[in-house]
Amino acid sequence: MSPPEGDLATPPLAQVFVYPARVKFLAVLADNPNESFSATELAEHAGTAASTWTSHRDDLLELELVDEIDTEGAYSEYSLAPTAHAQLLRQLSEDLDAVLYELNDPVSDAIGGFAQ
């Protein structure tokens, strides 16, 4: 039985979380949804080798999580795809950023201290 179309808990995301490098690449793209990156820039921001991007690129394109943008230059650039799965990753990134901000916010810490 095939999973229902639009089910956000099925393969594209399952095929991301088993590879830490894929998570890193998608985190960079999700944190910068209006930007595109060359392969070199994306690998640099993700803290990986460019060859690591190359080994995962085709799968991420096929999973429709990343878009390849044909630029006028010699190299393509990559951005987060507008698909539901990719946008879920973007939303998760925003939610995690908000939680981390709250955890590091001194006012929240002070209020939390008074509540004990």
UniProtKB/TrEMBL annotation:
InterPro entries: WH-like_DNA-bd_sf, WH_DNA-bd_sf. This is ArsR family transcriptional regulator. It comes from the Archaea. SUPFAM superfamilies: Winged helix' DNA-binding domain.
